[in-house]
Amino acid sequence: MCQNVIRDTYRCVNCCKTEDSYSGEEEMLRHHSEFYPWVNIKKIREFDWVILRPGYGHIEMNMFKSFVNLNWDVFMSDLAGLMGFCSENAQKAAKNCTDNHKTWTLIQVAYEGNLKEFDIAATPEGFIKFVTTTASSPNYIYMALMTLTYLQAIMNMRAGLRRGNICAFAPLFHARNHPKNREIEMMEAIQRACVP
């Protein structure tokens, strides 16, 4: 929405009125043909100075959505049901991550519950050795991957936000179809290259 406002809001250079702006090229052309038909069109974008950047809150919400959608049929739907999301609408709300705080609670419960399920080896090294060598069940290996990679990355992102170390989640974050966020991320990359 913000990108549309930035892209489609124009100001007439000929008017010199600071309070007038025009939404879309058609409105701008109509104004120009009505008041300045003899002058070449001079228009500027009103908000060309605005640089959109996705905040960490948006990145976190998309991390939650990516993780929940990837694991909904595997275990998140059952977990949501156990957490009180029983009706069809409640299940849909949990799957769509409509409330970030409730989704955060689901993520925390999934993380803590999965870690307790994996309580086989007393040390992290022993656990990793068990998962990489002894564990043969694909379900177990998948759950270990989801817990130790992506859920841990979500926890690390929350804990280490100020350190800027949020790279571990990137493969899953970009796996889903986020057209709006991809456009914002691309514009941010271009602006970072152009703006010092």
Describe the model.
By secondary structure, the protein is mostly helical. The protein has 2 domains: 2-45, no CATH class; 56-192, no CATH class. It is built from 9 helices and 3 strands. It has helices at residues 2-8, 25-35, 56-82, 88-96, 100-117, 124-134, 138-159, 170-173, 179-194; strands spanning 9-12, 22-23, 43-45. Helix 5 crosses helix 7. The longest helix has 27 residues, at 56-82. The relative contact order is 0.11.
Summed over residues and divided by their number, the pLDDT gives a mean of 77
Biggest β-sheet strands, sense, barrel = 3 strands, antiparallel
Evaluate the radius of gyration.
24 Å
Strand order in the largest sheet: 2-1-3
Shape: elongated
Number of domains: 2
Termini, distance in Å?
A: 26 Å
DSSP strand content: under 5%
Order of helices and strands: HEEHEHHHHHHH
Unreliable segments of 5+ consecutive residues: none
**Overall number of strands:** 3
User: Helix share of residues?
Assistant: 55-70%
Question: What's the total helix number?
Answer: 9
Estimated structural class:
mainly alpha
